[in-house]
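Retry 2 of 3 after timeout on previous attempt. Resubmitting structure tokens to design endpoint.
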């Protein structure tokens, strides 16, 4: 189990409409997490709920300024969220709601 598996699952799920619909059918965020952990095991990418939540990270506020580490990543100063990685994760933020 690993953060890397969670990251790979999130990336793969960003392109899998059926999986997104399966997760979106959940009524609560905890159920989304449970279904994601279950689906990840089915795909050979096991991770824990804690690893998933760590991989998702905080939801960026609409119109919010970039945090220092995000700005560094965009500017090429290090690893972190880039506009591309945030866009790939946008589907999961919609599922979790505000």
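Retry 2 succeeded. Sequence:
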């Amino acid at each position: 189990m690993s953060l890397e598996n969670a990251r790979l699952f999130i990336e793969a799920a960003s392109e899998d409409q059926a999986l997104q619909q399966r997760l979106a059918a959940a009524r609560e965020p905890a159920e989304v997490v449970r279904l994601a952990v279950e689906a990840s095991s089915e795909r050979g990418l096991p991770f824990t709920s804690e690893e998933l939540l760590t991989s998702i990270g905080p939801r960026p506020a609409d119109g919010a300024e970039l945090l220092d580490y995000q700005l560094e990543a965009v500017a090429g100063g290090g690893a972190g969220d880039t506009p591309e990685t945030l866009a790939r994760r946008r589907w999961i933020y919609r599922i979790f709601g505000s």
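Attempt log closed. Residues 3-96 form one domain.
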